[in-house]
């Protein structure tokens, strides 16, 4: 692997959701041997790094975000030796690997939690988590809700309650206890020693809870604590507590013991001015930009979130990241097929109005082409290079997301974006494996999105992504600077220059394509030459 202390500043990082990328042993669940067999295709795509969602030992109550052993691979996905092989091959291809760290909570099956249950009230074992007596015999210690629905407290036999901001199978660690810090520093070193290039840190904004665990004034199950104005900063007893910065600095000190490592926070913290504090020079290297993910495909909103991001992150010397899809949100080609979508985590089911697929494809491709030209690092979610839509008609009987169960199906949850991805149109399970098994059923329309249908096909989404990534690298756009081209910007057009490339996005009626060599465009069905149609993006060499 070539040395580069700044790789994360400009990298395109591809998220592998191990359950659904490729299945080597045919049991219907993706695994590391499956990943190994498909790594070359990621090299061809042109990404710089992979982020793996959890593959650690886990009862899989929240698809692996409930870890029972942080230093081992779950047999569902393979072995540590399989991981070493994937890492070695990725590195030989020039691809870095970051993995997930889940420090807010463990599985309830983790030995530390099991020991806490046994040890009893007031014990040091219980102090690794948040155990409390209730307000009275049947009332939990406070009014905190679980993000997945229902209450954030579960009562155990001796009458005490334990805290879980997510599912009851995911008890929250007590980060005021230095033993928790020690435990996770050891986990970081274990994987850094093995050679991983970094971590994505799960719900990094919830580790510290306000002293005394006070009631929340305004109940919301959103990850920011507010369903209303995302720019409004409201004090919240567990989202974005100031004390978390000490935890981050501790992580950073460990990362700094090694060369070229990076950590990215999953922090749904808004406004951006607050989130930027997370990436000060001695804190995380980067943080997901969920403000950008949540912005609609609209000229003014996009320009604002880009300006705010570059200003706020730039203000602390950090690059911004950009992201449109991941395993927790409705895939962006489907989101963009609607004027309005259900809120994050709620998902789309068969009873919801179905998407306008053509609109979603058009806008989704444009949104990606726009994003990949921005300076900074970009995250892609597996399958988006195929234009893969959300599975929006998944039947209730297949649902696995705890949100579905904790809300009695009222919020269908996130399974629709986690369905195994299609590789070959005519193979079993569309090439996900050779047996046809699939832990979530693939919808029939995935056939036409299969990689085999797009490879070498001019104008396909796969070829578009390849071209975008190639040109991005050629012009080093990730390390560039953005300058709006005011003469071309108006209510329905955005244009900026970055490193000798002019990027134009059209949100309204057709406009004349600015002069210059057309490097890449989303408009494969170009009918009138020299014109950029609505919801299309072009990259032009200056
Ligand atoms: C955020 C993860 O991305 C999500 O999938 C998970 O359910 C929660 N954190 C809890 O770990």
Automatic annotation (TrEMBL):
Region (Disordered): 220-239
CDD domains the UniProt entry points to: AmyAc_OligoGlu_TS
Sequence intervals crossing the membrane: none
Pfam family of the protein (one): Alpha-amylase
InterPro entries: GH, GH13_cat_dom, O16G_dom_2
Limits of the Glycosyl hydrolase family 13 catalytic domain: 15-418
UniProt GO MF annotations: alpha-amylase activity
GO BP field: oligosaccharide catabolic process
PANTHER family (UniProt xref): ALPHA-AMYLASE FAMILY MEMBER, NEUTRAL AND BASIC AMINO ACID TRANSPORT PROTEIN RBAT
Identification of the protein by name: Unannotated protein
High-level lineage: unclassified sequences, metagenomes, ecological metagenomes
